[in-house]
Amino acid sequence: MILLFSAAVAPGLALFSYFYLRNQMATEPRKTLFQAFLFGALITFPIMFIQYVLKEEATITNRYLTEVLVSSGLEEFFKWLVILLVIFRHIEFDDPYDGILYGASVSLGFATVENVLYLLSFGIDTAILRAILPVSSHALFGVVMGYYFGKSKFAKNDKEREYLFLSIFAPLILHVTYNSILRFEGYWVYLIAPFMFYLWWLALRKVKLAHQHLVQHLYEQKYQ
């Protein structure tokens, strides 16, 4: 049980540590980040409950809508809602890169609990594949979401709402694409690899841009 739990939690902690250590300009309070992680973990249960009810009640008869659009939409919406309601106006959200960290924290909280439950059901044999695909993809969706939250928070050109819209729309499109690829039985392996490379490239580009925004933000604070 300890081995299984460790295998389920380790990928999320490793990914979060990576994005946390990338922030060399400022140190975000660990307590606030841990709280964001916990909120992400807690929303796993209402999401899974709603997904279960929709499936059992056959509320939506189209399988694609149920497994791809509704599943992706619920997960990204709840993560987005947590950041918007709990974190976006928080005093500790004080520079553009913080969006990356809070987006990753909430997403990895959800992904970690989901991973624990999945490995408890299907065994540790799936741990490596789960770490490479679902856990890392959730983290990267969170990075993209957080990047646009950071842009919205510190927008100075009346684009706050535009960036806020992108903070839900961009990760949703990525998640829908990811889930759609997994439905190609027999072919998904050939499609998921280039998609994951693109997803990593996109997320790391957002990290780089967030660093540039952070440097500019600190410069403006110093000389204003």
UniProtKB/TrEMBL annotation:
EC number: 3.4.-.-
Membrane topology: Multi-pass membrane protein
One Pfam short name: PrsW-protease
Keyword Signal: no
MF annotations from Gene Ontology: peptidase activity
Domain of life the protein comes from: Bacteria
Ranges annotated as spanning the membrane: 6-21, 33-54, 69-88, 100-121, 127-150, 162-181, 187-204
Any GO CC annotation of this UniProt entry: plasma membrane
Cellular localization per UniProt: Cell membrane
InterPro entries cross-referenced by the UniProt entry: Peptidase_PrsW_arch/bac, PrsW
Family: Belongs to the protease PrsW family.
Functional summary from the UniProt entry: Involved in the degradation of specific anti-sigma factors.
NCBIfam families recorded: intramemb_PrsW (NF033739)
Protein name: Protease PrsW
